[in-house]
Design goal:
By secondary structure, this protein is of the alpha+beta class. The chain has helices at residues 2-16, 22-30, 62-77, 99-104, 113-121, 126-135, 139-148, 160-165, 177-189, 197-206, 270-288, and strands at 36-43, 46-50, 56-57, 84-87, 109-112, 154-155, 174-175, 224-231, 240-250, 256-266. It contains eleven helices and ten strands. The strands form three sheets. A five-stranded antiparallel beta sheet has the order 2-1-10-9-8, with helices on both faces.
């Protein structure tokens, strides 16, 4: 009887308590973590942020900025997306993450622009990224192009090569989470790219193969995610400089959530980082998509469970 009364009281209290906002739930989820966690999302015309004041290392998320800048230049010049790009052997770093290197080797070759973009964005190829930076006119030109579309609260000064040579320089390519979410929003809502350039990039983002256990793990049937991940360097003390995922979630009713979760100087471990990103995305989705079929309501930081022992 005592157990039944306890359950009844706890249930009544949970029903009487005011519903928590997504911001409150996520703030509680990230509180006391051995990491700095920044979150932002834009949905239904409103921006939401948690720990947005700091600047977080973008890592490979900046490959989205690079792709947009290069495509805008290609569009201005009337360059077709299937244009052949000449790549020199000297542009292929051997000791970096590069699926393209495994295929072509360290030699001169040609590759289509759309394929190069797919390597850089969908597969996070570091060599492909630096080649695209070269096509865009250098990292300074990429930074300037982003500012020309009204993007703020970011800084881009490093290439994959300079960060590889000195990992501490990766902190120079930095952004607030909201700035990243805003870039995705601009891609989908402000026509910063015309066709077929916009469709190409959106398709590539949808095909991203990295980070299936991050934001993507929060999706339910009928949802899609066009995203870009980023993973930092591991310092001698075991600290991971960054672990990120950002993208555009399309809900079954057609609405979109533009979301960025950037984790800085984390000692949580890669699996815990990914799990945290997925849990944050679930909260955002459930609060944004209330009433949408297949999306459960969120009542708090975690579901209330009771272990009942009849005495």
């Amino acid at each position: 009887m005592k157990t039944a009364v306890t359950i009844l009281i706890a249930t009544l209290l949970s029903l009487a308590a005011p519903a928590q906002t997504a911001e409150e739930i996520i703030a509680k989820m990230t509180e006391g973590k051995a990491a700095e966690v920044g979150v932002a999302w834009v949905a239904d015309g409103k921006a939401h942020t948690i720990n947005n004041a700091g600047h977080y290392p973008l890592m490979s998320v900046f490959k989205l900025h690079v792709a947009v800048a290069a495509l805008r230049q290609m569009e201005r010049n009337g360059t077709p997306t299937d244009t052949l790009i000449n790549v020199k052997a000297t542009e292929m770093m051997a000791d970096t993450y590069s699926p393209m290197l495994r295929l072509y080797g360290k030699r001169d070759f040609t590759i289509r622009l759309d394929s190069l973009l797919r390597y850089s964005v969908a597969e996070s190829d570091n060599n492909a990224c630096d080649i695209i930076i070269r096509l865009a006119g250098g990292i300074e030109a990429v930074d300037a192009e982003m500012r020309s579309i009204g993007l703020t609260d970011f800084n881009l000064t490093e290439t994959e090569a300079t960060m590889h040579a000195d990992p501490t320089r990766s902190y120079n390519n930095r952004s607030t989470p909201l700035s990243v979410a805003e870039l995705f929003r601009k891609l989908y809502e402000e026509s910063i790219l015309g066709e077929p350039y916009a469709a190409l990039l959106k398709g590539i983002l949808l095909s991203t193969s990295t980070g299936p256990n991050k934001l993507k793990a929060a999706l339910t049937p009928g949802m899609t995610l066009a995203h870009k991940t980023g993973t930092g360097f591991t310092l001698p003390d075991g600290t991971r400089t960054a672990d990120n995922d950002a993208g555009a979630i399309t809900l079954p009713d057609g609405r979109r959530i533009y979301i960025a979760v950037l984790i800085k100087d984390t000692r949580l471990g890669d699996e815990a980082n990914a799990r945290l990103m997925a849990d944050i995305a679930r909260v955002v989705i459930r609060h944004t998509a209330k009433g949408v079929k297949g999306v459960k309501e969120v009542k708090g930081v975690k579901d209330i469970t009771f272990n009942c022992h009849i005495q």
